[in-house]
Prior knowledge:
The protein is 23% helix and 34% strand. It is α+β, with helices and mostly antiparallel strands. Helix 7 packs antiparallel against helix 10. It contains ten helices and 29 strands. The protein has a six-stranded mixed sheet, with helices on both faces. A five-stranded antiparallel sheet has the order 5-6-7-8-9. The protein has three domains: 2-141, Copper Amine Oxidase, Chain A, domain 1; 163-275, Immunoglobulin-like; 304-476, Aminopeptidase, CATH 3.40.630.40.
Amino acid sequence: MKRFVSMLLFMSVFFTMFAAVGHAAQIVPKLYLNGQPLTSDVNPQIVNESTIVPVRTISEGLGYPIEWDNATKTVTVYNGQAVIKLKLNDSVAKVNDQQVQMDTPASIVKGTTLVPLRFIGEQFGLDFEWKQAEKEVHIYEKPMEPEVPTSPEVPKESEETTGWITQVSFDGISSLKINYAGSVTTKEPLFLDNPKRIVFDLPNTVYSNELNNLFAKGQVESIVADNPFLQKFRYSLFSNSPSVARLVLEVSEDTGFIMSESVGEIRFDLLPANEVPQEPIEPPPVVVDPPVTEPVAPADDGIFDIVIDAGHGGKDPGAISVLKRTEKEFNLSIALKIQALLNKETNIMAHLTRSDDTFVELVDRVKFAEDLKADLFISVHANRVENFSVTGTETFYNRAASKPFADVIHKHLLAATGLKNRGVKEGPYKVIRETTMPAILLEAGFLSNKTDAKLLYDEKVQDRIASEIVAGIKEYLKLK
């Protein structure tokens, strides 16, 4: 806290003056952060000659994560450098497990936790200004000296360490992210009960020095209040030799997740377990299935080669609809219709990973597109979940370069189906993860939903879907 010493004398005078004015005139001051008003259900107040302010309002204004533990009546704030714990009706706070005396205890007014402004200033590194005429408290973040970026230290005892985690963050809704430097991978998750937990281990991985400084009793733990998916998450260095970082999510009984990866980031999107998309399964190889014909890519003659991948096929029926029809049937019908339309174009050639009811390995679908050096890849699917009320159309991509293509096609697919917009999402599917051209996977609707299923097997709707996908391809390629 050395950088705050120069402010202490000013702040002492300021708070004494402010408290006196408050008692004399019952002022209800307004609160500003970096020039912007901070709104809260509870205004700053004066208690025992100390100004107390809503800690959540200021923390969230600064972008600091904050949690409330109703069991222990404790507020926890992470300011990027320290873990700050404030217990209701206690004037002693804990900063990185060190006790710090406050002017007055933390209190709750109308469900909002209020703490001394002086304490907030010292711990968050803020400057203050009292504007007498306007009766306003202005809070400013102090400019920080730029630091020369350095790579986190890798423990000497773990020479095989390949990556280090720089940040773990939860958006408060459904997305938790791990940001890292170097190379980081995850093992298959471990599922535990009582309470329900999902455990992710990241081998050959440690934490940056900044995160290590946040550890209390060997870990960082965050309690999440009022969230339907996540109650708590924590992370620690599970093993030092070899180094293994561990992330534990305590989730509700019906919580599932989709994990996606990009350079420097691993993301977990939480959602109801019965809405987790079913990844096309890669069954074991069967020798009776014919091998995939590997077309020879034509010379550079201005023709765009588009791979249309009809999901599933042969012994793999995919999802079974409420109408007792198979997903593989729908996928192939759409793929054939798209091929017929594309091949009418003078500068587009469509290639199918399967043109009949045969089984094709996922790895062979990827190889087909790669050997062709295709310009675009579209995998056609329909979804199914156990909740029969779930409906809608969604489009998945895996690599950032594929998202613009996904956005365009999703817009057209929505126009064709008229179903609920479930959005463009990142997905871990093999055929869009391991191809190198812009690649997307379409989930046109839910075969587990009677309305969706009847729509998707309608011949006219299928014609419309094929037509809109072709229009989207041409729009993306900027073809008339």
